[in-house]
Amino acid sequence: MDFSLSPEQNEIRELALKFARNEMLPRAQEYDEAGTFPREIFQKAWELGLINTCIPSAFGGSDFSSVDSVIISEALAYGCMGMNTSFMANDLALLPIVIGGSEAQKKTFLTPFTKEFRIASFCLTEPGNGSDAGGIRTQIKDGGDHWLLTGEKMWITNAGYADLFVVYGTIDPTLKHKGISALVVDPKSPGVELGKKEDKMGHRSSDTRAVRFNSVRVPKENMLGNPGDGWGIAMSTLDHSRPLVASSALGGAQRALDLSVQYSKERTQFGVPIAKHQAIQFMIAEMGMKVEAARLLIYKAAWLCDQGIRNTEIASYAKAFASDSCMQITTDAVQIYGGYGYSKEYPVEKLMRDAKLIQIYEGTSQIQRLVMARELLK
Amino acid sequence: MNIFVCVKQVPDTETKITPTGDGSFIETASIKWIMNPYDEFAVEQALLVKQLNPAATVTVLRVGSVKDTEALRTAMAMGADDAALVEAADNLDSYSIAKALKGAIQKTGKSPDLILAGKQAIDDDALQVPQILAQMLNLPSVSVIVGFELSGSALKVRREVEGGALEVYELATPCVLACNKGLNTPRYASLPGIMKAKKKPMAQYSLADVGVSESDRRVKYSQFKLPPEKPPGKKFDATDAGKQRELVSQVVGLLRTEAKII
Ligand SMILES: Cc1cc2nc3c(=O)[nH]c(=O)nc-3n(C[C@H](O)[C@H](O)[C@H](O)COP(=O)(O)OP(=O)(O)OC[C@H]3O[C@@H](n4cnc5c(N)ncnc54)[C@H](O)[C@@H]3O)c2cc1C
After folding, report:
1. What is the pTM of this model?
2. Is A47 in Cβ contact with B190 (below 8 Å)?
3. Fewer CB in a 10 Å sphere around the end CB: N or C, chain B?
4. Mutation target among B191, B202, B235 for the A interface, most CBs of A within 10 A
5. Ligand 1: which residues within 6 Å by Cβ?
């Protein structure tokens, strides 16, 4: 057993962290406050090769392993969890194509993302179907030489800026999971209607909207796999992407820990730095323990993915543990900062707001526990 | 055009320095090494020249321990073509380092057109190596440069002097230039760059290979120790108006005798 990163992984980590510290951290607060989409930062990260880590080299990508991608995601989230949500959404949208696309589809849809800076959205959730994604209603009808797409999606990250959508719909709702199918859709197609940008509690720099599809014509060759393959593709995508999302929580948690260590040594109360008070020490110890445990779970979930071993159970452990820990750790960071922690002048309140979302998207912490229990009890 | 860039690997700026038990050097086991920040400006300048002269080659040189080759790998990931490492203890003196760099340049068999370095290394802050190297190679040198214009072999460089004034030098290549912050914005090493760097050649020499021996040492470190801890500041209670005059003269007196700043 070997817990060390390879020299290249160390360099990748250094680069991503340097980028996070220099380009993201200094602007995180301001972008969050104003809800500015971080387009230039996104593009700069793309230029350095930090985005679209899932694309294989055969289509112009860098052949990153899943472990490489969680290392990058953790580092970028250290800079800003909100911006990283936008960055990760690209991978989330491209993964179904990597997993379920034909060679021709991969060439058509993935290669442009390596040639120029492009943005993508993954459209699964609907107003009436979130956790119960198997119940989605968006209709895919056979229109002869094309598909006709009709329905509404909700909470779609990057929707306002996307150059490509991957949309899940059903060819027949009575078939339940077996009817779900995935289409690659051009967001500029007639009939695509974007909702307003959601005014969110956190991750305010990432763009989140509803998207309505009004009888949108989609070329026949844009379906990933066959009609009915969509559910399998979506589930496999989540097995790949949960470690990634978990690592975003980890990056935020690590930042909260670092800030807490620093602040507790600087702030003096009762004549000593607050770090000398055991109650503060215990909170910091707890943070360190959870950060380290989350990292190990995430690395394992990603490593299993790289080995081609089914990781559903471990990926759910990683996602739920990392995001729940991030919530606890960022809440304690605000506690350690006291009144200053509650102010927007200091960085920890944003971390606490950002942490909350990671317990919700990509399967809530409750849904992760359902997955775990199903795996354990089967 | 043959461009050489001298880079040093220094402890990360956030490192907590601890002298070794016997005081002969500092503990290096847990240090995270980075490329000396001023050297990044030198690497960037070399790459900018290469962009305009695609036939130019950029070779990075480093004298130091082999345990980590972070600085050389970073420079190659940024775009340098190849590298040479002279294996040496990390506490070598400036004269020996300059002599080793000269030897390493000669080993490549290429005659240098431009040698770039950072103006100083942030670990020992000696500000000597580029000048000693220039002297050894009998080349002109300018240090602390913040501006660089090359046309043909004619070079115009700007350097900052005290008080914010600028000096402009015109000189011809080959020469040695020591770079300062403000010269350019160093690029990041991209991920594809990092992958490519793995395949780039890195020559490795011993000090003997490049003609440096213990007798070249001009400076020996006798002891490393941390500066004494600062005593806590003194507080004076000036709430009693009647005593303020007396307090002021007391404080001024201490600034003279203890702090010795007036
Ligand atoms: C900012 C943001 C960005 C997002 N980005 C995307 C995106 O890019 N693409 C996309 O497709 N989706 C996206 N989502 C949607 C996200 O994945 C869903 O919000 C999430 O899956 C939860 O669904 P829901 O909001 O409908 O909540 P619900 O499913 O209604 O859940 C409400 C509550 O009930 C609980 N619950 C539900 N079912 C059960 C059960 N069986 N047992 C126990 N508890 C249960 C949940 O855990 C939750 O606490 C995003 C959401 C947000 C907020």
Report:
1. 0.89
2. yes
3. C
4. B191
5. A 89, 121-125, 130-131, 155-157, 200, 203, 208, 357, 360-362, 364, 366-367, 370
Q: Which of A260, A279, A286 is nearest to A341 (CA)?
A: A260
| A41 vs B245: which has the higher pLDDT | A41
| CB-based contact B191 A48, cutoff 8 Å | yes
CATH number of A7-115: 1.10.540.10
Residues A292-315 pLDDT 10s = 999 999 999 999 999 999 999 999
How far, in Å, from the CA of A93 to the mean position of ligand 1?
Answer: 17
Taking only the tens place, the pLDDT of each residue in B67-82 is 778 899 999 999 999 9
Do residue B190 and residue A19 have CB atoms under 8 angstroms apart? no
Are B256 and B134 part of one and the same domain? Answer: no
Sort out which chain B residues have CB atoms less than 8 A from A50's CB and list them. Answer: 191
Kindly write down the DSSP assignment for every residue of A77-103, as one continuous string. Answer: HHH-HHHHHHHHHHHHHHHHHHHH--H
Percent of chain B having pLDDT more than 70? 100
Q: How far is CA B255 from each of CA B237, B240, B241, B243, B252, rounded to the nearest angstrom? A: 17, 22, 22, 18, 5
Does domain A231-376 correspond to CATH entry 1.25.40.20? no
CA distance A370 to A247: 21
Question: CB–CB of A8 and B195 under 8 A?
Answer: yes
Q: Could you tell me the residue range of the domain that residue B243 belongs to?
A: 230-262
Q: What is the DSSP string of B29-61?
A: TTPPEEE-HHHHHHHHHHHHHHHH-TT-EEEEE
Question: Tens digits of per-residue pLDDT, B86-99?
Answer: 999 888 999 999 99
Nearest to A181 by CA among A213, A149, A216: A149
B88 and B154 share a domain? Answer: yes
Please state the ipTM of this predicted complex. Answer: 0.76
CATH code for the domain in which residue B105 is found: 3.40.50.620
Segment B133-149 shows an average pLDDT of 97
Are B247 and B175 in a shared domain?
A: no
How far apart (Å, rounded) are the C-alpha atoms in residues A192 and A212? 6
User: A123, A361, A362, A365: which to mutate for ligand 1, most atoms within 8 A of CB?
Assistant: A361
Q: Could you tell me the CATH superfamily of domain A120-227?
A: Butyryl-CoA Dehydrogenase, subunit A, domain 2 (2.40.110.10)
Contact of B202 with B83, CB cutoff 8 Å: yes
**A47 → chain B, closest CA residue:** B190
Do B178 and B237 sit in the same domain of this protein? no
Provide the H-helix boundaries in chain A: 7-19, 25-34, 39-47, 66-79, 81-100, 103-115, 230-266, 278-307, 312-337, 348-358, 365-377
In a domain, B9, yes or no: yes
